[in-house]
Design brief:
single chain; 252 residues; alpha+beta; five-stranded antiparallel beta sheet; 9 strands; 27% strand
Length: 252
């Protein structure tokens, strides 16, 4: 998005944040350390509960009415709250899953309560933007993000090509913006700069300006799961790679 990476969907920056996670190692392609194709762009995330899912779906439908070319929330555009976006060698994914499983096994994520506080959007191009519902970055959420980053650090790669994503964008400039956004997620979108949010769709900027100005009734929601997804166009959580059940500590 943006063409200031800070404005990509699923990636949306600001004063809020994002959540989600999931995965399946069986679909990984063979890896070669020397080939860019051996790198995967991932999103380690929290999956929101039904309260947030319903709000996201209602707003997504509203935005599709004014901008049918936008995306619907579906299996390739999974609502979530991002904890970390980064590049990882495909051959190291299983090691990363094992490291992150330890983080989620010790964090009391299923007891976490988050407060949705406002709408926001990040410019996607000259006329449209990607909107989201922002969550207040709590101390618990920031602590979890720091632990997730620490566990992933040994496996993180500085950059990659657009082949690390599930698909390219129509505009090469958008590809470059997305790559830059993921490459600089740490430190630009973490810690004091973390903007937790759930992306809800695309619409014209004039419509989004009106939407952001509306009175927002805050509400409480909770994480329902954690996962690792491969990133798709605009930073969407497009392909589940690994998922953890936070209630039973089981993994898939």
């Amino acid at each position: 998005m943006k063409f200031s990476m800070r404005h990509l969907l699923h990636l949306l920056p600001g004063v809020c944040a994002s959540l989600l996670i999931g995965g399946s190692a069986s679909t990984r392609a063979a890896d070669s350390p020397a080939r860019p194709a051996g790198i995967t762009a991932i999103d380690i995330l929290l999956q929101p509960d039904e309260t947030m899912l319903q709000r996201a779906a209602t707003n997504n439908a509203r935005m599709l009415k004014v901008y049918p070319k936008g995306f619907a929330l579906d299996a390739a555009h999974t609502p979530h709250i991002t904890l970390l976006q980064c590049f990882v060698r495909t051959a190291d994914l299983d090691k990363l899953y094992a490291a992150e499983e330890k983080v989620f096994a010790t964090a009391n994520v299923n007891a976490m309560r988050l407060e949705a506080i406002k709408y926001y959007y990040a410019p996607a191009d000259a006329t449209t933007g990607v909107a989201g519902i922002c969550a207040k970055p709590s101390a618990e959420l920031l602590k979890l993000q720091a632990a997730v980053i620490s566990a992933a650090k040994p496996f993180m790669q500085k950059t990659a090509t657009i082949s690390a994503f599930t698909a390219p964008h129509e505009n090469p400039a958008t590809d470059a913006a997305m790559i830059q956004y993921v490459s600089t997620f740490v430190p630009k979108m973490t810690g004091a700069h973390y903007n937790p949010h759930v992306s809800i769709g695309v619409a014209p900027k004039d419509y989004l300006d009106q939407m952001v100005a509306e009175r927002f009734e805050s509400f409480t929601f909770a994480p329902a799961g954690a996962a690792v997804f491969q990133l798709g166009p605009y930073g969407t959580a497009a392909k589940k790679l690994k998922e953890w059940n936070l209630n039973t500590r089981a993994s898939n």
